[in-house]
Amino acid sequence: MNLMLPLVVLIYWSSYGVMYPLRFADDVIGQLIVLIFLFLVFLFTLPFCRRIWQLKGGHLTRTIVITILAFSPLVLIGLMMVGYYYTTLPLSSRWIDSLYLLLLWYIIYHSCIRGLSIAARKLAYKRALGRRHNMTREEQENEPITEPPMSIELISQQSLRLTSMVLFLIFIVVFYWIWSDFITIFSFLDGIQL
How crowded is residue 113: how many other Cβ atoms within 10 Å of its Cβ? Predict the structure, then answer.
């Protein structure tokens, strides 16, 4: 909730700056506003980053991505201080898109985990009912009870790994799509001979 106001201001300034770059020729007030709100975004994303760092058994890639996204406003502030205000506006727009992607990925990931846990509970309940039914049948017929070959924990763990992998691959593809037009910036390195 605290992050909403700085993000709205940054979305406005970055969109306006990308659409009308010539209007920002001597925009000192706009630079100050973007600088302040980038710092506020950093301050409001830092507690979330700290919580991710303190999690035991967290994914390393998720920790790295969240750390990079949390400290990116400081890099953008550094670019503004050096004098790259026009560059900061499109980069901040891409950064905000990346932040939205991360939040969407986070929601989808936890929804999938919740769905897998509900499915595992339903499967465990059905197996318990089957065992109870077999126990009453065994008492009547004196037959041994057969256990299912795979445990619920193994099925849940494999499903969770598969879901995590698919969601991470989707995240990487969409993240690349967001930043793909900036990758061509590095094509000038092809002309440099060592």
Answer: 15
The dihedral built from the CA positions of residue 77, 82, 85 and 87, taken in this order, carries a sign that is: negative
Q: Which residues have a Cβ under 8 Å from the Cβ of 130 and sit 6 or more positions away?
A: none
Q: What angle do CA 4, 106, 15 make, to 5 degrees?
A: 40
CA distance 123 to 126: 5
Is 116 within 8 Å of 156 (Cβ atoms)? yes
The pLDDT tens digits along the chain (194 residues) read 677 888 888 888 888 877 877 777 677 888 888 899 999 989 988 888 888 788 776 677 778 888 888 899 999 999 888 988 888 888 888 888 888 898 898 899 889 888 888 887 888 788 888 878 777 766 666 655 555 555 556 667 788 888 888 988 998 999 899 888 877 777 766 777 76
Burial of 87 (0-12, 13-18, 19+ CB in 10 A): middle
Give dist(CA 82, CA 35) in Å, integer: 12
The 3-class secondary structure across 10-25, one letter per residue, is HHHHHHHHHHCHHHHC
Predicted TM-score (pTM) of this structure: 0.75
